[in-house]
Design goal:
The protein is of the alpha/beta class. Helix content is about 40%, strand content about 20%. A 4-stranded parallel β-sheet has the order 3-2-1-4, sandwiched between helices.
Length: about 100
């Protein structure tokens, strides 16, 4: 996965964060998309601690315009999108 780009919605906690970290461990550049900046900051730090390249994009996947913006920002930042792990939900208080 070296050089590839992986976007993980709901990537700031739980299964999403574990998946984002797994992508990073395999050499992918990672985009974490979530609603919560606090949780995302912690997830970004954890991936950076592994030596991974990561960025966070605030997005609510229940809003189509935000999803389009999320993909557009990912491609603008990294020039491509190879993997999308669609883990984000539209309910609850999670990240």
């Amino acid at each position: 996965m070296k050089g590839k780009v992986a976007m993980v919605t709901g990537g700031s906690s739980g299964i999403g964060q574990a998946t984002a970290m797994a992508f990073a461990k395999e050499g992918a550049r990672v985009v974490i998309a979530s609603r919560s900046k606090t949780k995302a900051t912690e997830a970004v730090r954890a991936i950076e601690k592994l030596g991974g390249e990561v960025t966070w994009i605030q997005a609510d996947v229940s809003d189509a315009a935000q999803v389009q913006n999320m993909v557009r920002k990912t491609v603008a930042r990294f020039g491509r999108l190879d993997y999308a792990f669609n883990n984000g939900g539209s309910g609850g208080k999670g990240g």
